[in-house]
Amino acid sequence: MTPAVQAAGLGVSLGGSRILHDVDLTVHDGEVVALLGPNGSGKSTLVRALVGVVPHDRGQIHLLGAPLGPKVAWDRVGYVPQRISAATGVPSTARDVVVSGTLHRRRLVPPRGARRRADQALADVGLADLAGRPVSELSGGQQQRVLIARALVRQPRLLLLDEPVAGVDLPSQEAFARTLAALAGQGTTILVVLHELGALAGLVARAVALRHGRVVHDGPPPPARDEHARPGHDHVHPHEGDHPTTADGDFSATLRWRST
Ligand SMILES: Nc1ncnc2c1ncn2[C@@H]1O[C@H](COP(=O)(O)OP(=O)(O)OP(=O)(O)O)[C@@H](O)[C@H]1O
What we know:
Belongs to the ABC transporter superfamily. One of its GO terms (molecular function) is ATP hydrolysis activity. The protein is built from six helices and ten strands, in the order βββαβββαααβαβββα. By secondary structure, it is an alpha/beta fold. The strands form two sheets. A six-stranded mixed β-sheet has the order 6-7-8-3-9-10, sandwiched between helices. The chain has a four-stranded antiparallel β-sheet with strand order 2-1-4-5, covered by helices on one side. Strand 7 (158-162), helix 5 and strand 8 form a beta-alpha-beta unit. The radius of gyration is 19 Å and the shape is globular. 39% of the residues are buried. Adenosine-5'-triphosphate binds at residues 14-15, 17, 19, 37, 39-45, 82.
């Protein structure tokens, strides 16, 4: 089956510096993959390059089987950028922002049922009661959830999320994890940038870790941080400063992101 995301030999330079070096990333249809790494390792740049927000100068990108460009089925791609305000400067309600997620370059007018779909997406992120509120009156975490709803309303086949739960309270993270689990159950492919697996730990079967713009790990996710505190935790995995002990020889480097 065609992978949902295929990047090969990807290189990105910004401001005269090389940010991504020869990144290979394949995300298969229906997979849920976490993108991990320390601050500045290139996670956002990779996701932004995948959706064409920043240009790449080396390698190739295919999304949903099409080369990055107009042939991609953008109406089935949802993207939640790293925390930005959902407020547009123009008075708009949470519902208006979410309805705007149904628009794309070939659809400039919301489709029939867009309002109902927007309200469902807002309910999925726990904001049903705030649909009619101006986004400028919402808290930062609530605005983040509006942006998640804006991506969900597209009923995406591929969902790219850049730290979607940063600044979102735990009950809302758990509600969001349930929504993502339901989407994954329907076959949606999910690539999510995270600092902590947190509430999404149960969903993520594979983690790709970046360091200095290179892939340093691609395999099982690191154990949840709180496992360290549990009695019976057997410390079989490497910690910072340990020598690599896994087959790929680099898992300890992967784990160092936690302490930065
Ligand atoms: N527009 C830009 N011009 C120049 N350098 C940039 C630009 N955007 C990002 N960078 C640099 O690229 C590197 C990677 O940044 P990026 O935001 O991709 O990291 P990240 O892994 O997502 O970090 P964080 O966990 O802090 O969000 C950083 O060194 C950053 O300073």
